[in-house]
Amino acid sequence: VTLETTVDAIRPADETAMAAAAELQARLTKPAGSLGALEELSVRLAGLAGVCPPPMPEPATVAVFAGDHGVHAQGVTPWPQEVTAQMVANFVAGGAVVNAFARQAGADVMVIDVGVSIPLFGGANLLDANVRRGTRDMTAEPALTRDEARDAVEVGISVADQLVAAGAKCLLTGDMGIANTTPAAALIAVFTGAAPAAVTGRGTGIDDATLLHKTSVIAAALDRHAPDPADPLGVLAAVGGLEHAALAGFILGAAAHRVPVIIDGVIAASAALAAAAFAPDAVAAMVAGHRSAEPGASVALAHLGLEPLLDLGMRLGEGSGAVLALPVVASAVRVLHEVATFDSAGVSEK
Amino acid sequence: VTLETTVDAIRPADETAMAAAAELQARLTKPAGSLGALEELSVRLAGLAGVCPPPMPEPATVAVFAGDHGVHAQGVTPWPQEVTAQMVANFVAGGAVVNAFARQAGADVMVIDVGVSIPLFGGANLLDANVRRGTRDMTAEPALTRDEARDAVEVGISVADQLVAAGAKCLLTGDMGIANTTPAAALIAVFTGAAPAAVTGRGTGIDDATLLHKTSVIAAALDRHAPDPADPLGVLAAVGGLEHAALAGFILGAAAHRVPVIIDGVIAASAALAAAAFAPDAVAAMVAGHRSAEPGASVALAHLGLEPLLDLGMRLGEGSGAVLALPVVASAVRVLHEVATFDSAGVSEK
Fold first, then answer.
1. H-helix or E-strand containing A127?
2. In chain B, which residue's Cα lies nearest the Cα of A80?
3. Which of B38, B331, B348 is facing A86, going by the closest CB pair?
4. How many whole angstroms separate alpha carbon B172 and alpha carbon B110?
5. Which residues pair with B60 in a beta bridge?
6. CA-CA distance, B173 to B52, in Å (whole number)?
7. Shortest Cα distance, chain B CAs vs residue A244, angstroms
8. Each residue of A227-267: pLDDT tens digit?
9. d(CA B344, CA A277)
10. Is A313 on the interface with B (CB under 8 A)?
11. DSSP 8-state secondary structure symbol assigned to residue A109
12. Each residue of B259-318: pLDDT tens digit?
C-alpha cells in the first residue's frame, strides 16, 4: 500500500450517520447535552464510521514508533541517545508507563523500530521496520531524504493496515525517541506558521538555558531549509523524524480504514499536522487524547480544530496520554449502544 | 456504626507513605513529574492507605443514592418528580448512562433508595433504606428533622461499611433525585459562604427565568433557616436532601476505612463539604472525578482544595463523572505497582 493510494482512500465524515447519532443522543435517558464533550465525540465517531452507533473502539492497540535523531548532537536534551533503545527494551518487557496504562485500559502494545540508532533484540511485540539508524542533524542537512521520509510514512501505513486487518477497532499513537520533541516543534512551526519560541517546550524537563538553545536550534533549521507546508513529505524530510513520519502514515492508515486514532502528545500532534497536510479529511479520524504540557501540542491541536479529552499536566509521550483517554472514548461510544431511550425505559420527559 | 464512631475513626494522611510514594515516583522509568496530576494523586492515595504502593482501586462500586425533594413544589425544574423513581428502575435494569460507564470501567452499580417519594420494586442491586418519602419543602420548613438527617447519614455510612466488607477497594458517589441540585446549591452556599447566585446552576437544563427563580428559592430558604456551617447535621436537616446526607455518610465511611472515594458532580461535592465539616481529615479520602458544568461544583471543590481529574462539560450526575474517572485513578496507582525503575530496567539517567 502506498502513500498515494492511502490518501486517495480517505473520505469525509458521513453527515447522515452524524445526524443519526445526534438524534439518538437526544432520545437517551439523560438531559440533552448532559454528557458534554462525550456527545460530540460520539457524533464524530459515527461520522467517521459512517454508521450509527459506530463500532466500539475495542480491541485497541497502541503502536509505539521509535527513532533517534541527529539533532541530538546539538545538545537539545540532557538524556543520552542510548535511552531510546533502552526504553524500547522496557516497552518490550512491559515495564514502562504505557504498558501499565495499556493493561489498565485493555489495550495491546506494539513497538516498531522505524529509526533507532542501535540494532535491537527482538520480542514478540517488536517489529523491525528500521528505515535508517537515526536521522541526520537537521541543522546541517535535511534530516531525511524524501525517499526515506516516504519509506517511514509507509511503515506507519503498513502497521495501521496490519492492525486493522487483525481486528483493531481503535488505533493509538505512541512514540519513543530521545530528542524527538525538537523535530516535533519544528514540524508544528512549519505547519501552523507559529514562531519556534511558541511551540518549543521543555520535553523531558530541560532548564531555561537549554530551552533557549533548543529554540535557536529549531529556528536555525527552519531558516536553513525553509520547508514548504504544502509539501508535507518535504517538511518531514527536512526537519522531521522517522517516528514522526511513521506516525503520520499510521494516522492516514487509520483514516483510510475509518478507524479512530487517538492522538497522544506533541510528537503525535506534529505527525497529525503532517497527516492533515497530506489529506485534510484525515482529521475526522483523529481524537485528541490529552493536552500535553508541551506548548506545541496545544498549538497543533488548535490548528486541527481538536479539543483534547484529558488535561492532566502530562508530558511523558510513549502513547501514555492516548491510552489514558481510551476508556473515555469507549464510554462515549458505549452510550450509543447501551443506554435506554425515554420510550424504552418508560421515563417521563420534561 | 454511628456517625460519631465513624468520624472518630478518620485519621490524617500518612506522611511516611506519601514520602515513600514520591520517592518511588522519582525512580520510575520516566522523566520526573511527567505524569503530572497522576503523580500527585498516587502520592495522596498512598497517604490515605498508609502504605506505598497503595492498593489498586479495584473492585470498585458506585453507590447511587436516590431521593426526592419537597422543594420540587416550588417549580425549580421542569422534570416531574416521578422521574426519580423511573430512573431508579432504569439503573436497576442497567439502562442508564452510569450503568454503561460502569460496564466500561469494570465497576459495580448499587442503588439505594434513601428518600424516594414512591415505593420501589426490588432488584438484586437495589437497597431499600428509605428514611422518608422525600424531604419537606425547605422554603416552608426544615427539609428534614435532625434525626432524619442523622438516619440518612448513617445509611451512607452503612453502605460504605458493607461495600468495604465485601471487598471494595474504591467507592464512587452516585445520586438521583429530581430537583436535587437545589439543595446541593444551598449546602454549598452554607459551607463555603458563597452567594446563592454563584453556586446555582441550570441542573438538567433550565431556562434563564427558571434559573433566577431557583436562585431566589435557595436564597429564601437560607434566609429562613440561617444554617450554621459548624453544625453540619443542622445544615443537612435545614436545606439538604436525603441523598445528600447519605452521600456525606458514605464519604465519611470511605475515609474511616482509608478507602478512596471518587466524588462525582455537584450533589456529591455538596455532600463532600458536609463530610469535611464533620471530619476535616476526610478530605484525604476524596478524589474529585470531574469538573461538573454546575458552577457550585467548582466552588465546592476549590473550598476542599481538590482539583478534578476530568473536565468534559458533563452535568448528568448518577455518578457518571466519578465512574469515568475510575480508570484514571486506577492507572495512577498501577504505575506505582508495575512500572520498572531506572535500575531494574537498565535505563540510563540524564
1. strand A126-128
2. B350
3. B348
4. 10
5. B170
6. 25
7. 20
8. 999 999 999 999 999 999 999 999 999 999 999 999 999 99
9. 42
10. yes
11. E
12. 999 999 999 999 999 999 999 999 999 999 999 999 999 999 999 999 999 999 999 999
CB count in 10 Å sphere of residue B323:
32
Interface contacts A/B by beta carbons within 8 Å: 187
- Which of A121-125, A221-225, B9-13, B108-112 has the lowest average pLDDT? A121-125
CB contact (8 A) between residue B309 and residue A313:
no
Whose grid coordinates read 483510510?
A256
Nearest CA to B296 out of B178, B173, B182, B177 is that of B182
Can you spell out the DSSP letters for B157-224? HHHHHHHHHTT-SEEEEEEE-TTTHHHHHHHHHHHH---HHHH---TTT--HHHHHHHHHHHHHHHHH
Residues 6+ apart with CB under 8 A from B179: B68, B69, B71, B72, B76, B77, B79, B81
- Interval B52-63: pLDDT, tens: 999 999 999 999
If phi > 0 it is left, if psi is from -120 to 50 it is alpha, else beta; for residue B317 that is left
Question: Is position B318 annotated as part of the catalytic site?
Answer: yes
| Contact (CB<8Å) A36/B314 | yes
Residue tagged 436564597 (cell numbers): B219
| pLDDT score, position B282 | 98
Question: Rounded distance, CA A192 to CA A169, Å?
Answer: 30
Low-confidence ranges of chain A (pLDDT < 50): none
Q: How many CB atoms lie within 10 A of CB A270?
A: 37
- A 10 A CB-CB count for B294 gives 26
SS3 (DSSP) at B77: coil
A93 interfacial to chain B (CB closer than 8 Å): yes
Q: Cell numbers at residue B163, please?
A: 461495600
**Residues 252-311 of chain B whose Cβ lies under 8 A from any Cβ of chain A:** 293, 309-311
**Beta partners for residue A62, in sequence order:** A109, A172
Say what the pTM is.
0.98
Cβ(A282)–Cβ(A251) below 8 Å: yes
Q: How far apart are the C-alpha atoms of A285 and A253, rounded to whole Å? A: 10
Per-residue pLDDT tens digits for A89-132: 999 999 999 999 999 999 999 999 999 999 998 888 999 999 99
Q: Which residue has the cell 456525606?
A: B248
Q: Give residue A92's identity as a one-letter amino acid code.
A: V
All 3 cell numbers of residue A232?
508535507
Chain B residues 30-59 with CB within 8 Å of chain A: 30-38
